[in-house]
């Protein structure tokens, strides 16, 4: 059941969402300058193997924030110039709030709601969050990753896009796929090599490219 949140309770719920994440953690906030406690809890989630997705907007992260995030092993970082939404969720619960990931936010007047995973509104909000992530541009917190970045191909239309098996669609095709979210729907292109191959969202690379990627890792 939806619960109203003020600044204090929104931060408490955010902390709980980070601490109880077992598989996935999504943080969507235009402005990011995290308090030390939140950063420490995210490090702990990262050490547990939780997949963390952080979407920010408006301006690039400052060097200190990027350096802190660069130490994470399971973080995917995205930038959206159009981002205004603030949303934080794991596989169990979500907070939609006016609260940014700023260390001084607890001093502001904030409002929001929390949703449980079994609620219809939670599922609708997750779909919208995935659309936000789908149109965002991927960033790297590590300078070495920026140097090694390669091009891949949309597995539906073969358009050249950044190589990222977690995001194997161009923005237009992702919007179409996200309406149904069928991870096993047949596609026509290998995300890595661009050849005509049978692929899916769950398996976006052909067998040869997949095995080659494993050998390099």
What can you see in these coordinates?
By secondary structure, the protein is α+β, with helices and mostly antiparallel strands. It is 33% helix and 26% strand. The chain folds into 2 domains: 3-144, 2-Layer Sandwich (Endonuclease, Chain A); 150-216, no CATH class. The chain is built from 7 helices and 14 strands. The strands form 4 sheets. The protein has an 8-stranded mixed sheet, sandwiched between helices. Strand 13 and strand 14 form a beta hairpin.
Relevant terms:
217 residues, alpha+beta, Endonuclease, Chain A, 2 domains, 8-stranded mixed sheet, two-stranded parallel sheet, 7 helices, 14 strands, 26% strand, globular
Low-confidence stretches at least 5 residues in length (pLDDT < 50)?
Answer: none
Under the CATH scheme, which architecture of the largest domain would be assigned? 2-Layer Sandwich
Q: Main sheet?
A: 8 strands, mixed
Amount of helix? 25-40%
Strand order of the largest sheet: 1-9-7-6-2-4-5-10
């Amino acid at each position: 059941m939806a619960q109203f949140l003020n600044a204090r309770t929104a931060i408490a719920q955010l902390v709980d969402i980070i601490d109880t994440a077992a598989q996935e953690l999504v943080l969507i906030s235009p402005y990011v300058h995290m308090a030390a406690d939140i950063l420490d809890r995210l490090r702990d989630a990262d050490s547990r193997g939780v997949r963390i997705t952080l979407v920010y907007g408006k301006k690039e992260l400052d060097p200190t924030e990027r350096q802190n995030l660069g130490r994470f092993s399971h973080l995917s970082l995205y930038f959206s110039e159009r981002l205004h939404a603030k949303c934080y969720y794991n596989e169990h619960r979500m907070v939609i709030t006016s609260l940014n990931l700023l260390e001084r936010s607890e001093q502001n007047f904030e409002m929001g709601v929390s949703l449980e995973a079994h609620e219809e509104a939670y599922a609708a909000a997750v779909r919208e969050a995935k659309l936000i992530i789908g149109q965002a541009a991927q960033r790297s917190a590590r300078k070495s990753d920026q140097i090694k970045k390669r091009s891949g191909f949309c597995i539906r239309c073969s358009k050249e896009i950044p190589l990222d098996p977690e995001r194997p669609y161009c923005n237009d095709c992702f919007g179409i796929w996200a309406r149904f979210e069928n991870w096993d729907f047949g596609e026509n292109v290998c995300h890595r090599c661009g050849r005509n191959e049978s692929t899916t969202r769950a398996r976006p690379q052909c067998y040869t490219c997949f095995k080659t990627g494993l050998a390099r890792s």
